[in-house]
Amino acid sequence: MSDIIPASTDSSPIRVLIVDDHAVVRQGLKMFLGMDSSFEIVGEGVNGEQAVELVNRLMPDVVLMDLLMPAMDGVTAIGIIKQQHPDVELIALTSVLEDNAVISAVRAGAIGYLLKDTELPELVRAIKAAAAGQVQLSPKAAARLMREVRSPDSPEKLTDREMDVLRLVAQGLSNKEIALSLDVGIKTVKTHVSNILAKLGIASRTQAALYAARIGLVEMPRE
Question: Fewest CB within 10 angstroms: 38, 110, 212, 213, which?
Fold first, then answer.
């Protein structure tokens, strides 16, 4: 009998995979998130190799991914997972905001990142936002990423509808909110987002939001 729990629906808890090489961090996250019925912790991993294997087997909605780990680092794992499973959202965990690995994580496909000393309410919001496909950037983070994450050099032209979706993604709307705004289904929104990322040659919704700001489609918050 398979030990894989069916992927969540809108009414189901958000399936979360925790990946960190420090047991105390994993246990702390598991304990905190276990206090909220919105989440189901489906597994734990200690390095990037395990993360890739566990995502293939468990298909979580959101992965909390440490960046500095043995065997395979988090950035490499994020890139592999996003390539294999575009619908799985990843949040990079780091101890230092200025860590260059965070920039690499966004390039690889992370939808966002958190400091390990993040307060529980912010952690909960970030995971729920990621599960909904919602890009959330603080002014400080947006300014830093705008400086250090390059936009695509020669992106393929987006259709008018794709530009509409890109604008709403960059404004921080969730997939459900975008679907309601454009009067389409959530699956259609996800298809548009996948097409946008493919045409722009990028891996993350966060990069797409930064691209939208670069071309003047939206304004990013200032520091």
Answer: 38
Backbone φ and ψ for 46, nearest 5 degrees, come out as: -110, -5
Q: How far apart are CA 114 and CA 12, in angstroms?
A: 24
* Domains of the chain by residue range: 14-131, 149-214
pTM of the model: 0.85
Residue written as tokens 């050099």?
153
Q: How far apart, in Å, are the Cα atoms of 204 and each of 23, 180, 182, 197?
A: 28, 22, 22, 7
Q: Is 207 exposed, middle or buried (0-12, 13-18, 19+ CB in 10 A)?
A: buried
Q: Give pLDDT tens digits for 161-197.
A: 999 999 999 998 999 999 999 999 999 999 999 999 9
> Taking Cα atoms as reference points, which of 73, 147, 156 lies closest to residue 110?
73
* CATH number for the domain running over 149-214: 1.10.10.10
Residue 1 DSSP one-character state: -
Superfamily, domain 14-131: Response regulator (3.40.50.2300)
